[in-house]
Description:
The chain is of the alpha+beta class.
Amino acid sequence: MLGRCLGVIILWSLSLNALAIQNADLIKNLTSRLHPLPQGGTLIKSFTNHSQSYIYDQALAIIAFAKQGHQRKAKNLLKALAHLQRTDGSLYFSYYLN
């Protein structure tokens, strides 16, 4: 029970920290991480010091861009994911951007 409570408290505190980031700063940061793909679309670079891109980060970036009115950026992320989608409909967990 203590573990569950601690987990809830940690998630709650993380969500408060996330709220402290201003929307404009968030969009600016995400925009600086956009990486164009040769086949079309863009992906968010998940880390500033690595060239890996995780699907979960793409989903969060799509939500953030769409919510803040940056529809073109959200659509470019979706376009990249559509190009990366496998024939069975799945995506890999992450992609290297180099």
